[in-house]
Amino acid sequence: GSLLGFLLVVAALAAAAILIAKAIRRRLRFLTRDAREVGAACRRDLVGFVADQGLDPPPSATLAELGALVERSYYVDPEPFVQAVTQARYGPPAEMGRAAPRARRELRRLRHLMSGQLTFARRVRGALNLRSLTV
Asked: Which end of the chain is more exposed for a tag (fewer CB within 10 A), N or C?
């Protein structure tokens, strides 16, 4: 009984450590005011999310290719996200400042829509998957 309890505590601590590491990594991505870096962080965050769900977008995938992968896999419209991130990363400097917050909002919206399609087991498995830590 005590061995089983000990193993459960170790497993819970390991899960908590993974969740904390992922949250810190995600926060560090967005600690910038530069619109280009915010756009890049949004892209990396989406790549990490889909990688945790078992999809392997190639590192060289363009935003359009990443959007197509999300659309095929989750049946959501990634176009507002793709446009906002493209504008934040590659748009004219005068418009980049407005595009970066929009890219963050679109990322939240897209992640929310994608998460809504996952079962509880897939959400837990994705949350504990380490693939996003390598993105």
From this structure: N
